[in-house]
Amino acid sequence: MSEPLIPKHGGYRRLITYRLGVLIYDATAAFCARYIDRRDRTHDQMVQAARSGVANIVEGSEAAATSKKTELKLTNVAKASQEELLFDYQAFLRQRKLPEWLSDSPKALAVRQARPENLAQLRKLMGLLMSDQSDRSDKSDKKAEVAANTMIVLINQETYLLNRQIARLAADFEHEGGFTERLYRVRREHRDGKG
Predict the structure, then answer these.
(1) Which terminus has fewer CB within 10 Å in the chain: N or C?
(2) Model's pTM, two decimal places?
(3) pLDDT digits (tens, 9 = 90+) for 46-55
(4) Residues with Cβ < 8 Å from 173, sequence gap 6 or more?
């Protein structure tokens, strides 16, 4: 049986990167609403970077029907958007003189192991991390520190997973080619009487 001209594509909702990207987007919107003045350009830039991080996964997955190259490119754009967002969270901590957790700290490990799937689970996790905070006088600083650091951990997970996804897409493209090669193979099979 010959291969179909238009391969299976889409299916982005099954991707861990999509689901984590949605959580990062929703959590960033909530973070910005709470901690970043709406009139500050950073507010819109952070929300837009988080949105772009997930929207490009969707667009790339759908474009895969006729362009593996576009899927690969847009997945890389999603990763770049997450890196931009990571920079903004790190700047938030730095500018407020709040510490950034080390990647192997107990709190960072707790976030990675918890794998929250929605805002409710993420808020619960942050509440648990707040109770583990050393007692400081300013509770709003504690909350901001936990929230920004939790997002940094999630974004680092997302970029790690996107790097792996990009590598897999590149290997698939190298092995199978793109739409033009598929079109050629299908036409040749049809012409040779195999299809």
Answers:
(1) N
(2) 0.84
(3) 999 999 999 9
(4) 68, 69, 72
